[in-house]
Design goal:
four-stranded mixed β-sheet, alpha/beta, 163 residues, 6 strands, two-stranded parallel ribbon
């Protein structure tokens, strides 16, 4: 298993520095390029990419990618799906909604991507208790720790057919 490339819609994200340091191919694609199978699709095909792993990606995945990578696009969501998923439910929006709803717990959901935001099959969830003193920022910090701990393990297990 190896990382073939790092892709972003942002022209200069911090992750490109990491990609450079590991000699991993990287590139940004604008909206027109992402929606065009002969641009992004060809790039992925040329690199022989088998799986798409999303991290902090908040754009709709084009249907041609969902079709070409069926059950091979993974995403992580900072809440326990199916609650607090869907369009607009990302980052601090999620954490604030969870806090305002008075939920006793939150966590992460790692799921497959399909044509509907955050509706793909859930592969893994991990929850944490929300303490009375927690606010959106402290909850975000706790959830990020879960993401960093569990996402790489779940990715590897899924690719190896163990999930």
């Amino acid at each position: 298993m190896k990382v073939s490339c790092v892709i972003s819609n942002n022209p200069d994200p911090g992750v490109f520095d990491h990609a450079r340091s590991y000699a991993i191919d990287y590139r940004s694609f604008n909206a027109e390029e992402r929606s065009n199978p002969t641009v992004l699709g060809k790039y992925l095909s040329d690199l022989k990419v088998d799986y798409l792993i999303l991290a902090g990606y908040m754009k709709k995945i084009p249907q041609y990618l969902i079709d070409n990578y069926e059950d091979r696009i993974l995403n992580i969501h900072p809440a326990l799906l199916p609650k607090y998923g869907g369009k607009g439910m990302y980052g601090m929006n999620v954490h604030q909604a969870v806090i305002e709803a008075g939920e006793p717990e939150s966590g992460i959901s790692i799921h497959l991507v399909n044509e509907d935001y955050d509706k793909g099959r859930i592969l893994f969830q991990k929850s944490i208790s929300i303490l009375p003193e927690d606010d959106a920022e402290s909850l975000a910090s706790k959830v990020l720790e879960l993401e960093h701990r569990h996402y790489p393990e779940v990715i590897e297990s899924y690719i190896r057919g163990q999930v």
